[in-house]
Records
---
Amino acid sequence: MKLVLIIEHFNATRGGAEHFTVWLAEQLARRTDAAGGVKHEVHVICHELAAQVNRYRQATQRASHDADRSHQAHPPLPGEHVLPDGIRVHRMQGMRLNSGLGFRRFGRRAAQCARDLAPDVIHSMTVAYPGDLYHAHAGIYAAIQAQAVASRDTATSAKWKQLMLQLSLKQRTLIALERRALTASRFFMGVP
């Protein structure tokens, strides 16, 4: 099966969604069929690549909790950025992702790359291009923004925060893309 994973940063040390995506790509690439052949062709579309493979990873595969703690206590050394076998990465470099325009451009380029690859399934971790399966790791942006406003100490501070969120091109872009992602994806995986 030809699979595409989409995430802005393919970097296991960056955060939970990023760590999960690197892990998922590795697991899918390792899958074999009954004859021992490769079961999945895994493609990753990203903006930034820094897939870190820890020097203790091989020792911790299917190992105990103690081995996992050892894995976490010994981060990769400089220069140990190794891409696992069986994963093809397509970098969509360009504008920085800290602006609404850069985020939209990444989404358009990721969509074009995914169309060119013609995969069986597109599993997206980003609202930039939701694909067949949209996996919202950090939650729903609209709820996150509402919580940011509600958590302010004073009504004035809350109104100020709400105004800043409404004026931010990136925040407006994220909300619009999220609305589209939630209606366009065939499947949605939310945060538990």
Note: Residues 51-71, 76-81 have pLDDT under 50 and may be disordered.
---
Amino acid sequence: YMVGGGGTGIMLLADLVEGTDAMVQVAGLDYRWLAINEAAKNEFERIFGVRPRVGASMLDMLASQPEHQAAVKATWGRALAGEQFVEIGEFGDAARDRRSYEMRYNILKNRDGERIGAYQFAYDVTERLRDQQRLRDAEEALRQAQKMDALGQLTGGVAHDFNNLLAVFANGLQLIERNAPPEQQQRVIAGMRRAIARGSGLTHQLLAFSRRRAMNPEAIDLATHLRGMREMLTRSLRGDIDVRMDLDDGLWPVEIDAGEFDLAMLNMCV
């Protein structure tokens, strides 16, 4: 697009390209620079240690750095093959500086509409990505703190449950030691086995609830999942609160992280 006419428009466009914060590069099908603005030259030299120039091959310039040469060739190769895309990638020699860039590639054509290369507009987004990661870390820390708070609500009821399970074993062992009739011993042993299963289930539920893990949305049966939470909710609330669930038939599945859903429900109820 030209403002004014002829050479004035070209000069204005060149001034705009040189004055922008974007790193602009134009390359032919042979990976040779057709044009490159000062910002791109400076950044290329800063992260790779070599200064590009029009007419030079970017692959030849990085021949002594095969790892970086391959990374540059991988992204530019897609553009020079005719693909238009936007991508965020990390480039640079770690000994100098390694940065992340948001790169927009477009096809370069001649006056006859023939593809002769590609051009790139790139922006340094390293700090933006770091800020986003810090935010994700803070959100994860908050979720974990909420889980710990919720676990604090669970401990009283769980401790009571485990005391009851231990009582089953204590009473059962007393009966066995007293040489109770075989039929009674069998009933006691069966009760102890149920107590073991119950204790194992409680432990598994607590570990699953408190474990630090990545978000994992999945489709769940809402009614079945809520009914499975009844005992956990009952243990978390005061003894004078009765947990009742009235769920419609045919509820749609929902896609959600089951652990986060449990945490949300527990926090609301508590």
Note: Residues 1-6 have pLDDT under 50 and may be disordered.
---
Amino acid sequence: SLVLKYTPSDNAMYYLRIAEGFRSGGFSSAVIFSQDALEPYEPEELLAYEVGLKLSSSDNRLRFDSSAFYYDYQGFQATFVRANEANARLQNAGDVEIYGLEASLDWLPTEQWDLNLGLSLLDSEIVSTSVVLPPLDGGPEVTIAGNEIPNAPGFSINGRARYYLPLGSSFLAALQADFTSVDEHFLEPNNREVLKADSYTLVNARVEVGPREGPWRVSAFVRNIGDEVYRTAAQDLALALGFNEMVLGFPRTWGLQFEYQF
């Protein structure tokens, strides 16, 4: 990889990075139901370009990071169902281009508050592929060229607010709320509309108590407070088995946690 950095001051840094990546080919470890599924998948190669900046205030209480990137994949590897096979397996979806922008803001307005906000924008496309699919309603096969890659929402936003509350001179409590908001997206390269994940927002809360300098702490948490129903994975099995596989995310979950550092 090649990295160029420019640091005009202690509170600013700009960079340009060009890197190559490689993931070897092999044979899928999935349960195989056809001779075609025994075919090996080819290596995946990546050429990545990224430009970004890191800025902070003089007292380091305010920090801003941002980067824009372009990823050029050759032989993008993904786990999905090809045509009317009865199993999902790791294989090459094709050549992929991804454009993206990420930014995060961290702010410590007081000694008690710790605030964070993050944003991600993505545009992905399978630009070249040998994979074709029979449509669900019959007719000629269609290529997956032009499809999005799995789990690549157009935008996602996350944030966290954390408040530190002194409990006397020896103990400290931390109250935290955080959220993640995700745009609709596909869960497999076939981009079947019936398997598309709708946009959703998850909100969580957490309370921690422990000694200021001690090795332990006790936490109580609630995840997915709104009991949002959302999909995390899916497989396109309708043509082979007459149904699809869909995996849902965790519902509202609460718990207690004890941590001790040796």
Note: The mean pLDDT is 94.
